[in-house]
Design a protein that fits this description.
It is built from 2 helices and 6 strands; from the N terminus they run H-E-E-H-E-E-E-E. The chain is an alpha+beta fold. Helices cover about 25% and strands about 40% of the residues. Strand 5 and strand 6 form a beta hairpin. The chain has one domain. The protein has a 4-stranded antiparallel sheet, covered by helices on one side.
Length: about 110
């Protein structure tokens, strides 16, 4: 019984690790230069040039008070850039918050 539970736990851990590996931490731009999570807006822009599309929004930052009420305490500046990476390559969606690259996703639809 313990072996079965241990084998199941190991299987779940391996499966979860595999899911995390599907996220991109680094991509290659059309010009061959690399960008990775943690870089600033200016670093990505200098390496890859202008994105083919860019959206900017201010996202409210909320905090729960001891009374249970929710109150806005500020805003976060968020940008989403889409880069075309060349023929045969999926476009990449780069998400920045407060000037730092947080996430890279490959888009399956153009």
């Amino acid at each position: 019984m313990i072996r079965t539970a241990l084998a199941w736990a190991v299987g779940v851990a391996v499966a979860c690790h595999g899911l995390g590996a599907s996220a991109e931490d680094t991509i290659r731009c059309r010009n061959g230069r690399l960008v990775n999570v943690g870089m600033t807006v200016s670093e990505v822009s200098s390496r890859c040039g202008d994105p083919k599309s860019r959206t900017v929004e201010e996202i409210p930052v909320l905090a729960r008070l001891p009374t249970g009420a929710v109150r806005q305490t500020g805003t976060t500046h968020a940008e989403r850039w889409i880069y075309g990476r060349g023929q045969g390559q999926m476009d990449a969606l780069l998400t920045f918050e407060d000037g730092k690259l947080l996430r890279i996703e490959l888009l399956t639809q153009p």
